[in-house]
């Protein structure tokens, strides 16, 4: 399982989300606290953020197939990268998956940034033609983009029914909406005065972190946070 983090709110520096917190993604790259599968996340990292200096906002990505803890260039520049919408991840590659930048989250369709914690049988995924990599997460991202993010909950429930061994924690954002699923792994939310964090695990010991129950979809917009249970489609087994 990899670890991911999303932010929707006021403009903040990427560093304050990813590198500075005592148990943030930098520390999670070598010492995650809640990871159930895999000991560390040394197979790459990615940070995506929406750049609102361009009309409408565009997603920009910085990804690497090397461990986050050793990246001095990112460490230097991250304090100067500011955004109101961020999707970041550190990766522990599933056995058999390529370790390369194109297999590293976040993935994008030009509108959304998307990360996946987990594993899925690629044979059950439809609509993978545009996937960036043969990595299961890249193929899952391509399927979700093709079906549309409005259908995220239904898509996850359907894929979960087709592959009962899958773990499908997905995090996606488009600059004004942030969506996440809890399906087989941990997910937590922190409602701050200046915005909302969704993360695989809390980046500090603030008592305001709440755990999202398994098999749930969370949606964050400027209007607030909604949480919906996800059920497997009836008659799917
Ligand atoms: N299966 C994905 C990969 O190989 C994600 C792995 C994970 O969540 N650890 O990259």
Automatic annotation (TrEMBL):
Function of the protein: Catalyzes the hydrolysis of the gamma-glutamyl amide bond of hercynyl-gamma-L-glutamyl-L-cysteine sulfoxide to produce hercynylcysteine sulfoxide, a step in the biosynthesis pathway of ergothioneine.
Catalytic activity: gamma-L-glutamyl-hercynylcysteine S-oxide + H2O = S-(hercyn-2-yl)-L-cysteine S-oxide + L-glutamate
Species assigned in the record: Mycobacterium simiae (Mycobacterium habana)
4Fe-4S keyword on record: no
GO molecular function terms attached to this record: hydrolase activity, acting on carbon-nitrogen (but not peptide) bonds, in linear amides
Superkingdom of the source species: Bacteria
GO biological process, one term: ergothioneine biosynthetic process
Protein name (record): Gamma-glutamyl-hercynylcysteine sulfoxide hydrolase
Residue ranges occupied by any Glutamine amidotransferase type-2 domain in the UniProt entry: 2-237
Keyword Cytoplasm: no
EC number of this enzyme: 3.5.1.118
InterPro entries in the cross-refs: EgtC, EgtC-like, EgtC_Actinobacteria, Gamma-glu_amide_hydrolase, GATase_2_dom, Ntn_hydrolases_N
Broadest EC class assigned to this enzyme: hydrolase
SUPFAM superfamilies for the chain: N-terminal nucleophile aminohydrolases (Ntn hydrolases)
The protein's annotated pathway: Amino-acid biosynthesis; ergothioneine biosynthesis
Family annotation (PANTHER family): GAMMA-GLUTAMYL-HERCYNYLCYSTEINE SULFOXIDE HYDROLASE (PTHR43187:SF2), GLUTAMINE AMIDOTRANSFERASE DUG3-RELATED (PTHR43187)
UniProt entry keywords in alphabetical sequence: Glutamine amidotransferase, Hydrolase
Lineage: Bacteria, Bacillati, Actinomycetota, Actinomycetes, Mycobacteriales
């Amino acid at each position: 399982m990899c670890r991911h983090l999303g932010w929707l709110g006021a403009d903040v520096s990427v560093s304050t989300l990813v590198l500075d917190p005592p148990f943030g993604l930098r520390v999670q790259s070598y010492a995650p606290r809640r990871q159930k599968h895999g000991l560390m996340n040394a197979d790459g990292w990615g940070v995506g953020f929406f750049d609102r200096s361009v009309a409408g906002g565009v997603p920009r990505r910085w990804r690497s197939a090397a461990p986050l803890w050793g990246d001095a260039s990112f460490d230097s520049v991250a304090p100067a990268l500011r955004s109101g919408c961020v999707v970041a991840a550190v990766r522990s590659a599933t056995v058999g998956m390529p370790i390369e930048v194109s297999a590293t989250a976040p993935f994008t369709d030009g509108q959304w940034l998307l990360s996946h914690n987990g594993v899925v049988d690629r044979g059950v995924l439809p609509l993978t033609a545009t996937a960036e990599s043969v990595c299961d997460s890249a193929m899952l991202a391509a399927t979700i983009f093709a079906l549309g993010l409005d259908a995220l909950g239904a898509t996850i429930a359907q894929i979960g029914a087709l592959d009962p061994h899958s773990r499908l924690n997905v995090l996606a954002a488009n600059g004004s909406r942030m969506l996440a699923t809890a399906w087989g792994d941990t997910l937590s939310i922190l409602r701050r005065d200046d915005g909302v964090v969704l993360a695989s695990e809390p980046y500090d010991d603030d008592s305001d972190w709440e755990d999202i129950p398994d098999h749930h979809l969370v949606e964050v917009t400027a209007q607030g946070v909604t949480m919906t249970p996800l059920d497997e489609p009836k008659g799917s087994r």
